[in-house]
Amino acid sequence: MLYKVKIVVMPRKGILDPQGQAVAKALDTMDYKGINSVRIGKHLEMELEGENQQIVEETVKEMCEKLLANTVIEDYRFTIEEA
Amino acid sequence: MLYKVKIVVMPRKGILDPQGQAVAKALDTMDYKGINSVRIGKHLEMELEGENQQIVEETVKEMCEKLLANTVIEDYRFTIEEA
Amino acid sequence: MKFGVIVFPGSNCDLDAYHLVKDVLRKPVEYIWHQQNSLKGYDCLILPGGFSYGDYLRCGAIARFSPIMQEVVEFANRGGLVLGICNGFQILTEAGLLPGVLLRNQDLKFYCQFVHLKVENVNTPFTNFIEPQKILKIPIAHGDGNYYIDEKGLNSLLEKKQVIFRYATAEGVVSDEANPNGALFNIAGVISEKGNVLGMMPHPERAGETLLGSTDGLFIFQSLLNYLEKL
Amino acid sequence: MKETKIWQEMGLTDTEYQLILDGLGREPNYVELGMFSVMWSEHCSYKHSRKALKMFPTTGERVLQGPGENAGVVDIGDELAVCFKIESHNHPSAIEPYQGAATGVGGIIRDILAMGARPVALLNSLRFGSLDNPRVRHLFSGVVAGIGGYGNCIGIPTVGGELYFNSCYEDNPLVNAMCVGLVNKNNLMKGWATGVGNLVILVGASTGRDGIHGVTFASEELSEASEKKRPSVQVGDPFMEKLLVEACLELIENNYLVGLQDLGGAGLTCATSETASRAGTGMEIDLDRVPLREKNLTPYEIMLSESQERMLLIVEPSKESKVMEVCHRWGLKATTIGRVTDDQILKVYQDRKIVAEVPARMLAEEAPIYSPLALEPAYIKEISDFNLDKLPEIVDANRVLLALLSSPTIASKEWVYGQYDYMVRTSTVIHPGSDAAVIRIRDTHKGLALTTDCNSLYTYLDPYVGGMIAVAEAARNIVCSGARPLAVTDCLNFGNPEKPEIFWQFQKAIEGMSEACRVLQAPVVGGNVSFYNERNGSPIYPTPTVGMVGLLENVDKRCTQAFKKQGDIIVLLGNSYNELGGSQYLLQVHHLVKGKPPALSLEQEKALQENLYQAISQGVINSAHDLSEGGLAVALAECCISGGLGAKVVLKKEDLRVDALLFGESQSRVIVSIKSAGIPALWQLAQKNGLEVNAIGYVGGESLTIKVDDREWINLTIKEIEQSWKNTIAKLMS
Ligand SMILES: Nc1ncnc2c1ncn2[C@@H]1O[C@H](COP(=O)(O)OP(=O)(O)O)[C@@H](O)[C@H]1O
Ligand SMILES: [Mg+2]
């Protein structure tokens, strides 16, 4: 089966997010007001061959823990659907 | 009203995504097989004060066009929900 | 006494570290290819600066899965000396050999310039040749050198004297204005608990000859030689 | 009716189409037509410029390779040669500044690599509109980040360049990138497909739909309409290029290659037809073997794609497996896509069927050559009518100096070069911030001095004199660093050459440059032409950027602009005249673009440079700085700032205006500082060379003061001066 996986990796709460800060500042100078807590992370999409949803889930989790996220500073979440 | 906005900015189809390529290759050498077409983009989250959903939608669209996405090489999509 | 400079795809300061050891220190040195899986006979490993694997995803994240890194971890665990410079520092944190992480520079810009470093601990294999009050002038060149660690981590680093270098003014004052990248506590370099693995954002290999504008980087290498000779 | 449109849409004229019909003896198919249209585009064929470029002197004792190959090559002794070239990426950068500039850097690096050289330094010449405009700030910050992003990652130091702001570049910024490489003479490569039966190997990135018709786009004026037509933007991958550089250099070192060619504008079409045409051979390639990034690319798309980070190798069959082994070790895809044939025809196959069959030479060499009409533009007369006597005399010279120092064109460029890694490879021994950058050459005593220069205000007022000055100033910068000029690469940025006024500018500029190159003995060994730099009909100032490389026999003899020692005597070499035309003073203070640029006597210039070179190599000189934008007062201020030392200067007015004396930009002048014991030697030299020298003051204190006769006109602390100069660009950008 082919699965479509979407992974979101975000800086953890309380962790400095220079990119988010810069965007918040830029939006403010562009006169967008009332904007709060901008955070910027990564969005990954991939297609993955796997036996079943559960196995794919485990694989993706492992990939995130090992490579895709740095769990010292980032959280991740993902969705899997059949492609 | 306070709205929670999530924006995904992805490299456009057909545009080279060196980052996605590098990650795909790394996953392959780490023995994750059967992985296809990895694309990596940005995920932004923010809270936004606005009168109603429609107005917020227009604001977010404008922000994407002007600042958050580089529409020459990136596509964007977003979701808005009440916070 | 043999040095090894590890070459990852995308390393680009490998050459500079190699030349410094070979032509300035005049000590034996070899390049070590990232796919190699033995580290026999080396006394000190250098993980050089550059953009391993393009620094895609996160700096150093992909390099740490190179075959050689398993050997580096074992080498370090056996007490071998490892110096990670810039990208090398990033790889060492990703590999868990050093605490903390290196985030994007606070204002998101890449900075190439000389900085001044206050040396916080001169009782390490990398700093024993440095006089306690000496301020080092050494260049940085990075976009991701914003050191971060949580409070507990920082306290533990301070307690165990693991913070080695801090960005300071030429007079040695640690201040915001002397901090080029937003690093927590102006941290420019940290050492492992056992004291044998050092990571630093500034490039000592770029400050080893008068015609390059500073020779202060030599203090670090001289310390290493001192330490190794006494072994 | 519909058919006539196809070639026109691809940018070919009816006459050009007829030439194709005649040459082929039949109608081209769609793929072939596409191949012609890119190869016969201005960018690839130089059809409007080729004749005029013949004016350049291109030979010299040291020249190993002049124009015509991927880059020029000059012998520097010790079995070594230096290889360099400059190229524009103006239009792509106007669309997507980061990627446009980044791929400009990537492209010029591959040109140097194609000669077999190791790229060791990068420079760039940048021109934008006013930073008050948010769109310009966006372009500027993107371009700088893109140049840094590529160069920093690949690990080649960006050691110099120039940066100008003028409203003529508002919609059409100029982004010219230069790369310098070193090569062992035995390892020099050429882009030749020699040896019938040899294999054609494509290595590097896979091919996508990037930049199809990029060169056609670069050969048109920018407009709303052109923006709609723009090709999909190329994204650079410096990591891939780093691997490509290392792998190709290893292949060359091992003698595995017969020929080497980069893929740039016009992609595979250009690389295959040029290599075959140069060697007088033909080539067969099979598109089924080209690694693709996406499915279902058509032959047309594959042949025209400008996907980055690809190189073409010509390899003897017996070495194929060794080549593959090296590429593989560097993690690169390499594929044999064809072979060299003897019939001089480029044959392209897909699915075993021929999809294009064209004489290689016809594509690469036989585009029509035009002799455009040249007419002096009307504006030249209008602006040259300028009476200096009507200009009000200066009141507050301190204010003027601070205003000039804080104008973005003159202010510190550290905001820019601080984002570039200019130290990697630990060979940069004069950093950005002096006249020319200097890199040492390892394992020798030698060094290379590098600079880019062009004051386009001068070329606008008088393209002939402006062209001469561009070369003279570049050479002066080289000599100020202690080197001798070796050779020139140039990037000619102009408007639409089909307009007689533009073509006149073009011709005049080349005439002037050629004259200066001849006298200063710096032949042109390569370059690039970028036409159609117009937006909705309004052209940029003619901007013939000069990239120059010089040689220091002994790198320890290098010299910088910074004042070094209290008490050193400040000496002005050269004469000052009542000249303010084209000066920054006239532009910034009086808002005038008028008059004639300063006059240039090439004989005087030569005498100055010879004198300065000798003085520096005798070790007499402690600092040297050439006078350019902002004149004497600005140059003195820069020497003070770089050295952290003040200066006391007294000038004689004689028959000069005070503003001309302080801020005029008379040519062939340099400020040096020198210990008093060195004075006799310098005077002796000057006498021999027939050069005017005047001691004008000494280094010391914490202020810069300038008296003219008895009256003090400038009195500012170095702190004040530095503050005006240092943070201008950073402030505008935050
Ligand atoms: N775009 C750029 N990239 C790199 N260095 C630059 C750039 N623009 C200017 N510089 C550097 O800044 C210094 C001053 O530049 P500039 O004022 O143009 O010099 P000059 O007046 O001698 O022509 C030089 O060392 C130059 O190489
Ligand atoms: Mg100059």
UniProtKB/TrEMBL annotation, chains A, B:
The keyword DNA damage does not apply. One of its GO terms (cellular component) is cytoplasm. InterPro entries: PurS (IPR003850), PurS-like_sf (IPR036604). Gene3D superfamilies: Phosphoribosylformylglycinamidine synthase subunit PurS. It is found in: Cytoplasm. The keyword Cytoplasm applies. Keywords: ATP-binding, Cytoplasm, Ligase, Nucleotide-binding, Purine biosynthesis. Pathway: Purine metabolism; IMP biosynthesis via de novo pathway; 5-amino-1-(5-phospho-D-ribosyl)imidazole from N(2)-formyl-N(1)-(5-phospho-D-ribosyl)glycinamide: step 1/2. GO terms for molecular function: ATP binding; phosphoribosylformylglycinamidine synthase activity. Its EC number is 6.3.5.3. It catalyses: N(2)-formyl-N(1)-(5-phospho-beta-D-ribosyl)glycinamide + L-glutamine + ATP + H2O = 2-formamido-N(1)-(5-O-phospho-beta-D-ribosyl)acetamidine + L-glutamate + ADP + phosphate + H(+). One of its GO terms (biological process) is 'de novo' IMP biosynthetic process. Belongs to the PurS family. NCBIfam families: phosphoribosylformylglycinamidine synthase subunit PurS, PRK05974.1. Part of the FGAM synthase complex composed of 1 PurL, 1 PurQ and 2 PurS subunits. Part of the phosphoribosylformylglycinamidine synthase complex involved in the purines biosynthetic pathway. Catalyzes the ATP-dependent conversion of formylglycinamide ribonucleotide (FGAR) and glutamine to yield formylglycinamidine ribonucleotide (FGAM) and glutamate. The FGAM synthase complex is composed of three subunits. PurQ produces an ammonia molecule by converting glutamine to glutamate. PurL transfers the ammonia molecule to FGAR to form FGAM in an ATP-dependent manner. This is Phosphoribosylformylglycinamidine synthase subunit PurS. The gene is purS.
TrEMBL record, chain D:
ATP binds at residues 46, 85, 490, 527. It is an enzyme of class 6 (ligase). Its main location: cytoplasm. It is found in: Cytoplasm. Mg(2+) 1 binds at residues 87, 528. Mg(2+) 2 binds at residues 111, 262. Pathway: Purine metabolism; IMP biosynthesis via de novo pathway; 5-amino-1-(5-phospho-D-ribosyl)imidazole from N(2)-formyl-N(1)-(5-phospho-D-ribosyl)glycinamide: step 1/2. The active site is at 43, 89 (proton acceptor). One of its GO terms (biological process) is 'de novo' IMP biosynthetic process. One of its GO terms (cellular component) is cytoplasm. Residues 196-349, 565-704 form the PurM-like C-terminal domain. Its EC number is 6.3.5.3. It holds the Pfam family FGAR-AT_linker. Keywords: ATP-binding, Cytoplasm, Ligase, Magnesium, Metal-binding, Nucleotide-binding, Purine biosynthesis. Substrate binds at residues 88-91, 110, 234, 306-308, 530. Belongs to the FGAMS family. NCBIfam families: FGAM_synth_II, PRK01213.1. Monomer. Part of the FGAM synthase complex composed of 1 PurL, 1 PurQ and 2 PurS subunits. Part of the phosphoribosylformylglycinamidine synthase complex involved in the purines biosynthetic pathway. Catalyzes the ATP-dependent conversion of formylglycinamide ribonucleotide (FGAR) and glutamine to yield formylglycinamidine ribonucleotide (FGAM) and glutamate. The FGAM synthase complex is composed of three subunits. PurQ produces an ammonia molecule by converting glutamine to glutamate. PurL transfers the ammonia molecule to FGAR to form FGAM in an ATP-dependent manner. This is Phosphoribosylformylglycinamidine synthase subunit PurL. It comes from Psychracetigena formicireducens. The gene is purL.
